[in-house]
Amino acid sequence: MDGAPILAAAIDDSIVRGIHLLAAMLAVGALVFQRVALRPALDERGDPELAEAIRRRWAPWVHGVIVILLATGFWRFFTIGLPKGEADPSYHMLFGMKFLAAFGVFFVASALAGKGPALARFRAAGRTTLGVGILLALVVLAISLHLREIEPGPTAVHPEGATLPGGDAPAAGEPPRGG
After folding, report:
1. Among the listed residues 169, 176, 177, the one whose alpha carbon sits nearest the alpha carbon of residue 3
2. Distance (Å) of CA 128 to CA 20, 61, 91, 122
């Protein structure tokens, strides 16, 4: 039954990763939809009441997706990312860049879904703001694809004791391997 903890860890990570990816697809898909279809149609129509009704319905989704991405992203960083940082010191630098770009995407989405006057200029420049958000999302994607290729360090152990792919769990009382 040595494989049971590994399978449980893989399923847990698969579920968390799936939720993370679904939330990211929803967020980025919404930015693209707004940029290529919704904003041009709203600009043609010139109906501020319709724009406000859409914003009011979309804002809770934006905030919910951001919470999900942060929660699942932190979980994955602490269970997958930290061990990868042992193997490749550039992991943390790249992750930091990805994190900052992701916060840029969160800002764009929040600014467009918000109603406060402080961010009105971002809403007024909707297509440009959406373009910046999409560009930042592509940066997050590119960095994520690279980070995914980094193998965990030799002492990478999942919190529940299951060994992560590429790492061996030391036996009880044994010092970490791979020095």
Report:
1. 169
2. 26, 22, 31, 8
- Name beta bridge partners: 163: 157
Q: Could you please report the per-residue DSSP string of 18-42?
A: HHHHHHHHHHHHHHHHIIIIIHHHH
Q: Please, which pLDDT band fits residue 148 given cuts at 50, 70 and 90?
A: confident
Alpha helices in 34-170 (DSSP H): 39-45, 48-76, 82-87, 90-113, 120-124, 126-148
Among residues 77, 79, 87, 78, the alpha carbon closest in space to that of 162 is found at: 79
pTM: 0.76
Q: Rounded to whole angstroms, how far apart are CA atoms 111 and 96?
A: 22
